[in-house]
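To fix ideas, we quote verbatim one protein's residues and fold tokens.
>
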Amino acid sequence: MSRLPIVSGRAAAKAFQRAGWALVRWRGSHMILTKAGEEATLSIPDHHELGRGLLRALVRDAGMTVEEFNGLLPS
């Protein structure tokens, strides 16, 4: 199993957007992303670093694997 890197909230949101998720609103310090056909809504905090547990939960809620998410991050 691959390890999740430490990334910012904005970098994570960009990776999810590459996977088809759309930023629908930015409320306070949280970015809200949705995807057509998906029941889940992703709420990503705009922090400099996201904890690995939170990031893993977001990846799971998005229906992705860690490897798929890592492939969407810039090198």
Summary: The longest strand covers residues 22-27. The chain has one domain: 9-72. The radius of gyration is 11 Å.
